[in-house]
Structure formats: C-alpha cells, structure tokens
Amino acid sequence: MERALVVEDLDVRYGPVHAVRGLSLEARPGEIVGLIGANGAGKSSTLHAIMGLAPASGGTIRLGSNSLRGLRPEDVARAGVALVPEGRRVFAELTVDENLKLGQALRRQRNGTDDVLARVRSLFPVLDEFSGRQAGLLSGGQQQQLAIARALVAEPDVLLLDEPSLGLAPTMVDVVFDALTSIRERGLAILLVEQRAQRTVALADRSYVLATGSVRLELSPHQAADTDALIAAYFS
Amino acid sequence: MIGAFNIDWQTLADATALGAIYALMAVGIGLVFGVLRLVNFAYGQLIMAGAFALAVASERNWPLWAAIVLCFVVVLTLSMLLNRLVFRPLRGQSPAVMLVATFAVAFLLQNVALLKFGALGKIATSLTFLNRPVDIGGVEIRKITIVAIVVAAVSLAALHLLLERTTIGLHMRAASMDFDTARLLGVRADRVIGVAVLLSGVLAAIVAVMLTVQTPLVTSDFALHDTIIVLAGVVLGGMNRPIPATLGGFAIGFASGLLGGALPTTQSQYLPTFLFAAVILVLLVRPGGLFDRTASAERV
C-alpha cells in the first residue's frame, strides 16, 4: 500500500485568525513537495496541523489510509511522520548521540537500529565525528544536520521540514539540500517549507505557492529560473 | 543579641542529615517541575500522608516493614491520584493556575487529615529507636543521622543512574528541556509525567520515613514548614535540573541545621528570618539560582 501524505480541505484557526483555508496537497513516497510563500501565508501552520501541534478545524489529514487528524503529536510521530522544526530545536545540553537516541528509541521496530544509525551517519559524517559533544556546542549547520538525522533515525514515511536553511551559511544550505535529495532516493515523502523559493522549486518535484492560507500557484522544476517573476506576476 | 556560636561535630552531622533529607524533597519537587513546569505546593502534604500512615501502623503495632510498605502505598496512591485528577486535566494551563490548584490540594489534604486524626495528631513510634546515638571517634551521633545520609545518597545515586542511563530517563531529561520537541520525536507525554510524579512520590515516602524519626508527633501540618524551606532551596539552586535542585535543597537544609544548632534555644524562633534573608540575598546577586550555568547559549 502506498503511504502517501494526503491533506484535503485543511482549515486551521487560531482564535479569530484563519491561518489555513481549504488547503489540499499530497506528498507521495520518493517525492519532495515544496511549500513556499511569504511569512504568515500558512506554511508553518500547515505543518503544525499535520503534526497535531495546532488543531485542524476542518478537512482531512491522512497517511495512507490512516487518519492523523486529532492525534497527539507523539502519536503522529509514531504513525510515521517526522517534523524537523523551525529553529532546529536540538537538545543543547544532550550529546549528539543522545539526541539521535531520542529519535531512535521511538522506532516502531527495534531491529536494524545499527543499520539506520550507520546510514544516517554516512549521510552526515560530521555527526559521527562529534558524537560525544554537547549539541549546543555545534555550529548552526551542524545542528540542522543533527535535527534532520534525529528525525530520520525514527524511520518515518514522511519527513516535514520547517525552513531548514534559515540562518545557515551558503555551504551549509548546499549540504542540507543535497541531503534532502539522498533522502528522497530512499523513498521518503518530503514536505519542505522554505523561504528560498527558487532553490526549493528547482529541488522539489512540485512546489505550491501559498498566500493567505491557501494554495495559489503550483510550480514545477523547469520553472525554477522564473520563480520570482511567476510569483510576482501572479500576485500583481 | 545573638549568643556565642557553638558548632560541634554533632551539629555538623545533624545539619548534613537535614541537608540530605531536604535534598530528597528538592529533587522530588524538581522532577515534577521539570516535566510539568508546575510547583507542587502539595508535596509536603504527600509526606504528611505518609507520616500518618506510619503513625497508624505503629499504633496498631504493625511490624516495621509493613509500616514502611503502608507509607509507600499511601504516598504513591495519592501521587497517582493527584496526577490523574489535577495535573493531567490542568496540563498546559498557566503556571499560576496550576500553582493555585496545588495550593487547594494542599489545604484539602491538610484539612482531611485534621478531620480524620484531630488537632493533636498521632505518634509514629516504630522507628524512634534510630534516635539512639552511636559513638564514632568520640563523637555521639544519632543513628538516624547516618541512616538519612546513606539513604539519601543511595536514592540520589539511583535516580541519577535512572536519568542518565535508561531510555525513560533520557526521555525525562529531554522533556524537561523542551517538552514540545520531545513529543514531536514520539516521547509519550503521559508516560514521562506519570513516571516523574511516581518517582517524586517515592522520594516523598522516603522523606516521610526519615522525618517521623526526627519528629514522631505527626500532625496535619507535618512537613509544611520543611516544604516551604525546601521550595526556597529549590529556587535557590535552580528549578528544573535535578543536580542544582539537589544542591539547593542540601544547602538550605545544611544552613538551617547549622543555624538551628548555632543559635541559642531562646533565639531559635529567628531561624527562618535568617534563612530567608540569606535566600533573598543570594537571589539578588544570582537571579538564576546559585548553581545556574548560563553557558549553552543558542548558536547560529
């Protein structure tokens, strides 16, 4: 059975604020789906609603045939969805290994743990090098790699990323985007929220442009070079 | 005027024992604060309930082991009820709401005890033999002093191992640093909080056993005074990390024991004044607590 992440007609309200209005999207295994748009367009709210961090007031959220709507964050995680949160949120006082162990301890199957760790370490060799170091002592780019690795060791079906390139040096942005390509090859579905519109459109199989809580425009990789012009033309 | 200080080895030993007991209480309060951001003001009443359990058992001439088992059963049952009926429904509310709720629970338990056991209270005698002294190198030290220090050291070491070496310990540490992110990784909130409350209850039961040796007369305000001092100690040390909380609890217990021994009996009513003045002074100088490490700033 194909375990695609399907969101249909999603509504999210924070009190009087209607953050997401009737948003629909799908991310299938082996696919990167980009979500771009201005601040406050509803990108993060969409991710939070999928994870159960924000209550969805309408619509459906499914992984394969399982409904995720109304589940607690820990249960969404255990169902196979991992979020790499904005700002990385690594546990600064825990070591790199302990951070990874946190993701790993919640794996649904206990066997094959070492394989998963080995794969994640080959993807981000720096984590192997600094395994015993406190995560708070890593650079921002290294912390971002740790945050992605921590999500991957749980072996999710779907990986959600909230602005992974925010505040990173350009070389580190390359490392993160290259890693996403390798992760896609392993058959994960990736939903990528980003500010770097052009790079996201180039990387993703499909990108949705959000404004005021709904999808306004869909872009494919061959339109990457014209991303800014297309977005500007659409909203003018 | 304060008379001449007279600190001898016995006073030092007693102060260390009081510090050890307060350290246990501080960790008990700190564990729950870590995962719930909740100051459990009713902690002293859990200890009080355990002490009444010991008193009732000794009144009925139960063997010592049975009395201690009863104490643990009572304190742990109350802890779990408190978690289920108060902490869980109020989770996510503002700290003020939760603090006031635990005040309410504290007064409720205290008044239930007053109704059930009366204003005169009961006497727990099964462990009073620990008040007899032993001679160590010419210094007479009460057995309870040694027992309290050893039990506290063993309990804290066991707790440290649990937090550092086990999966649930790692989950608890992660949850006390950033609960939302821990949940995103699949850490079960109810389980982590349940275990923290339970461990906190185990420590309360241990403290109940120790304190009834020192104060066999159990009344409805048993351990109330100690809890207030320990709360100051926890704030003094730093709230949400076990080691600073332990040190804060120990420091205030030790200081309190030392001052109590040093002040002449006619002046001992001023003890809390000195203690809290010291706490205020420390917090003015180090608002983050005595043992706060502000090293790990966020990096970009």
Topology:
The complex is a heterodimer of chains A (236) and B (300).
Chain A: E1 5-14, E2 17-27, E3 31-37, H1 43-51, E4 56-63, E5 66-67, H2 73-79, E6 81-84, H3 96-104, H4 113-123, H5 125-129, H6 140-152, E7 158-162, H7 170-185, E8 189-194, H8 197-203, E9 206-211, E10 214-219, H9 227-235
Parallel strand pairs in A: 3-8, 3-9, 6-7, 7-8
Antiparallel strand pairs in A: 1-2, 1-4, 4-5, 9-10
Chain B: H1 9-36, H2 43-59, H3 64-90, H4 95-117, E1 122-123, E2 133-136, E3 139-142, H5 143-165, H6 167-177, H7 179-184, H8 189-214, E4 217-218, H9 224-237, H10 242-262, H11 271-285
Antiparallel strand pairs in B: 1-4, 2-3
Sequence of secondary-structure elements of chain B: HHHHEEEHHHHEHHH
Biggest sheet of chain A, open or closed, and with what strands and sense? 6 strands, mixed
Widest sheet, order of strands of chain A:
6-7-8-3-9-10
Termini distance of chain B?
57 Å
The termini of chain A sit apart by 43 Å
Number of strands of chain A: 10
Query: What is the strand tally of chain B?
Result: 4
Estimated radius of gyration of chain B: 19 Å
Estimate percent helicity of chain B. over 70%
Strand content of chain B: under 5%
Outline type of chain A: globular
**What radius of gyration of chain A results from the CA coordinates?**
17 Å
* Contiguous runs where pLDDT drops below 50 for at least 5 residues of chain B: 294-300
pLDDT averaged residue by residue of chain A: 91
